[in-house]
Design goal:
It is built from three helices and two strands. It is mainly α. The protein is flat, with a radius of gyration of 29 Å.
Length: 92
């Protein structure tokens, strides 16, 4: 299983010299060989998981903990109108 390193590099938008491609070729072939070995492992009866641990995420209660503070947060602003910040026009 020889991989065309220049083609992979072009598809990946990576510029490689011939020396770099010659060095990466065997490495990529080794990685793909390892993946091929993994595909031959018998996984019958193995349940798919999204996480290696059977831990549920702790959920917090769905309550408002930080109420509407718009007036407090806008109080230092020089000018507001209808709950919005008013700023000077910068484009004519």
């Amino acid at each position: 299983m020889d991989i065309d390193v220049h083609k992979v590099a072009m598809l990946s938008r990576i510029r490689l010299t011939d020396d770099e491609a010659a060095e990466l070729g065997p490495q990529l072939n080794s990685i793909l060989g390892y993946v091929d070995n993994l595909q031959q492992v018998n996984t019958d009866g193995v349940v798919e998981t999204a996480h290696p641990h059977d831990a549920a995420m702790p959920l917090r209660s769905d309550v408002v903990s930080n109420g509407n503070r718009r007036d407090d947060l806008q109080s230092p602003a020089p000018k507001t109108e209808s709950g919005l910040y008013v700023v000077p026009k910068v484009i004519e």
